[in-house]
Amino acid sequence: xxxxxxxxxxxxxxxxxxxxxxxxxxxxxxxxxxxxxxxxxxxxxxxxxxxxxxxxxxxxxxxxxxxxxxxxxxxxxxxxxxxxxxxxxxxxxxxxxxxxxxxxxxxxxxxxxxxxxxxxxxxxxxxxxxxxxxxxxxxxxxxxxxxxxxxxxxxxxxxxxxxxxxxxxxxxxxxxxxxxxxxxxxxxxxxxxxxxxxxxxxxxxxxxxxxxxxxxxxxxxxxxxxxxxxxxxxxxxxxxxxxxxxxxxxxxxxxxxxxxxxxxxxxxxxxxxxxxxxxxxxxxxxxxxxxxxxxxxxxxxxxxxxxxxxxxx
Length: 313
Known about the structure:
Elements: E1 6-11, H1 16-25, E2 29-35, E3 46-48, H2 54-64, E4 68-71, H3 78-83, H4 85-106, E5 109-115, H5 138-153, E6 156-162, E7 165-166, H6 173-183, E8 186-190, E9 194-195, E10 198-199, H7 200-215, E11 225-227, E12 234-235, H8 236-250, E13 258-262, H9 282-288, H10 295-312
Parallel strand pairs: 1-2, 1-4, 2-3, 4-5, 5-6, 6-11, 7-10, 8-13
Antiparallel strand pairs: 9-12
Helix pairs in contact: 1-7, 2-4, 4-5, 6-8, 8-10
């Protein structure tokens, strides 16, 4: 007997991950898109909602009674969070906690995304799920608080920690570097912070695979927290170099800018960043068949698509 389609609420639907999740989640059922921005273009069911508003969130969940909440919304302005910690915690900690408590009361499930920035970057090996978090900034603190709120709720949940997400839309490192390269002949990029750049489309695909384990009660996942990102670990400087080389090869950059490697203390930012936040994905590979993609192929596919969008506009 075929299972009934799921009712899904997708928060952060207008964001770079949300836009990649939507066409995959509709394979599972009916998706209500939720975002604080205006309704998502082309989405038949779309609602404008600010997650910092506790009452709105509760009303929406009670009205729609989703089987699954996919929380792709987040306050991701790392430096701004140092000045706006109240809103960062509202969106990254208290809202996920409310979703989780609602899911527990109603017997529903929650998929939530967290970050490599829950770690301080002091180690010299890939971070595992059982390593003790120690965030260096308000953003990391708020995301860790969100994880804890979900875990203590008792709801059926899955938390995926991702890393350095980029895509063809929204605000991300790849698009920022492309824009700067078109305006400036020389760029300075930090070379002593290392992570795993992850294409949002890959993360959406990984999520669909993970959800199959979460939702099949006959074969539950062994863990409720997994590291989930693409394969290759690089510095921001090396990432920028690959963005420029790939951009030239794809025809969306006319030339490579001169690229200077600098230390974090030579490029001061309000929030401290971990120097080493590489995530070990071996548990996800073992438990639900994650096959992390490489940076070169993913970046090329992303920039080729970006180039097509630019031609159309």
